[in-house]
Design a protein that fits this description.
This protein is an alpha+beta fold. It has 15 helices and 22 strands. The chain is 30% helix and 21% strand.
Length: 511
């Protein structure tokens, strides 16, 4: 909010003017109102098996229009290049043949699925939704921290944060031109419908969830409701003659597009885990036959592998012939001998990350680690170099955050969401700002004690078309009738697999 000289930065002047006169009691009352609103609406996340309201801080994060324009260009560039990369490695593999990146780097990735080779979506889109995690470093420059190309979560919190803030601070929205976020479901629905086979004039779209025990179930149900489509579990679907059908009270109904929120391993027991009861047997065969589209595509996890991430600037230059608009965080690749030697030599200065980790689990921050933890990390890196990367400690930027009865600086990151409909990549203005509520912590995941902020992208001076209005309802009413069969109990096996899927994403995390 403030520059080095203590002056209020331009984008925050309106927020500062509004908050400065408010006394502690009023701030406390508004903060309590935010918490009550989330509890009343059931906006929660699962942590250690308990449902808790997702912490929303009352001070929004503000991004100027010009700064957002650069971020938007960088995100579109990155998603475009990764889309071409995934199409290539599951097709001609020219980037591997030309040895631009090593073949074994891709084939050794846990999320590279040979079952997806040659499977081309009807409109060529594999990444329908991407979540690109950004951090602002100590020099004020935004850098990409991580790519999420499978089922990135958190957009429901973006929409609900905005709706709740508009109710608690309506006066702020009258004095600011804040770009809207409530139209995300319409963009997602357009992208899903566009992905269907060209001969489907009115495709049937469903949202496939692991079930109510999944930490992101609130988001699954919210998106299905706002898009006006069915929320289904694997047991609601079946395949016959390479066609997917949904069981309804009115009979069988063919499904054309599945927006799945289930990991690849659980999606089809005929090709992946044979014990899975969360997915649909024969789903991959139906997709290969062109009778159903799986969104996002099977095998997308190669593109968000933390080791592949280090090569994304190379990928951008190879496919687009451009320099990256948004730089990566410097990354040491432990599978390379010289870089591994430097990591082992400087392990106490670096952040050590497991390539397959998520939710902040398994990360070792060298300056804060004990000698025993560092020695254990050395052993793990030597035993499995492919499984680890290291980065310098990035002193994330801070935003004033209410802790107790004070506003104090806390570190934040940002996850914008991009939606690709095949013709254009639309980036949700702002995205999810996650905040580390623990003093000095750099881990923002909710499972590690993090919360969130409403992210405001200011409109340009002449742009009023997408201004956010106070108190606007962003959540549509649920459909009048639910044609699914209801009231069935989970088997023990289904419940266990829902928990396994959740653990892979990290419980209580936004992946």
């Amino acid at each position: 909010m403030f520059d080095g000289a203590g002056r209020v930065r331009q984008p925050y002047r309106g927020i500062f003017s509004a908050l400065a006169p408010i006394d502690v009691a009023d701030l406390e009352a508004r903060s309590d109102a935010l918490d009550r609103a989330f509890i009343n609406q059931g906006i929660t996340f699962s942590l250690s098996g308990q449902e808790r309201p997702f912490p929303l801080d009352l001070v929004p994060r503000v991004i100027a229009a010009a700064e957002w324009s650069k971020l938007e260009r960088g995100i579109k560039q990155r998603v475009t290049a990764l889309e071409l990369f995934l199409a290539d490695i599951y097709g001609e593999q020219s980037i591997l043949r030309e040895e631009v990146i090593p073949r074994r780097l891709v084939t050794s990735c846990q999320h590279f699925h040979r079952e997806a080779a040659g499977l081309v979506p009807p409109n060529g889109v594999r990444i329908h939704v991407a979540g690109i995690d950004l951090v602002r470093d100590q020099h004020g420059e935004f850098r990409v921290l991580e790519d999420n190309l499978r089922s990135p979560s958190g957009v429901s919190y973006v929409m609900e944060n905005r709706r709740t803030m508009a109710r608690v601070f309506p006066d702020l929205f009258f004095s600011h031109q804040v770009r809207a976020v409530g139209d995300y479901p319409s963009h997602l629905m357009r992208a899903l419908r566009a992905s269907a086979a060209p001969n489907e004039a009115d495709p049937t779209v469903v949202v496939l969830t692991p079930g109510v025990d999944n930490s992101a179930y609130f988001e699954h149900s919210l998106l299905a409701r706002q898009m006006g489509v069915e929320l289904v579990e694997g047991r609601d679907l079946f395949c016959r003659d390479n066609v997917v059908y949904m069981r309804t009270t009115a009979g069988e109904r063919q499904v054309d597009v599945i927006y799945r929120r289930i990991d690849d391993d659980f999606l089809d027991p005929m090709h992946f885990r044979p014990d899975s009861v969360l997915g649909v047997a024969g789903l991959l065969n139906a997709a290969r036959a062109g009778n159903v589209v799986i969104s996002s595509a099977i095998g997308n996890g190669v593109g968000d592998d933390k080791l592949i991430y280090a090569y994304v600037p190379t990928i951008i230059e190879y496919y687009l012939g451009e320099k990256p608009v948004l730089p990566n965080v410097d990354t040491y690749r432990c599978w390379l001998d010289d870089e591994r030697a430097e990591v082992l030599d400087r392990i106490g200065e670096l952040v050590i990350k497991p390539v397959e980790g998520s939710g902040g689990y398994g990360i070792i921050i060298g300056p804060d680690a004990t000698l025993r933890e560092l020695e254990a990390a050395r052993r793990r890196i030597k035993a499995d170099p492919r499984g680890w990367v290291a980065q310098p400690v990035v002193q994330l930027s801070t935003v004033p955050t209410k802790i107790g009865n004070e506003l104090v600086p806390r570190h934040v990151d940002l996850r914008p969401f991009a939606v690709n409909d095949g013709d254009d990549i639309w980036v949700l203005p702002g995205g999810l700002t996650r905040v580390a509520l623990q003093e000095g912590s750099l881990v923002v995941n909710s499972s590690q004690g993090g919360g969130s902020k409403d992210t405001w992208v200011l409109s340009g001076r002449d742009s009023l078309a997408d201004r956010e209005l106070d108190g606007t309802e962003l959540v549509s009413e649920p459909p009048q009738a639910d044609s699914r069969e209801l009231g069935r109990e989970l088997t023990v096996e289904q419940a266990n697999q829902q928990q396994q899927q959740q653990q892979q994403s990290g419980p209580g995390t936004v992946r």
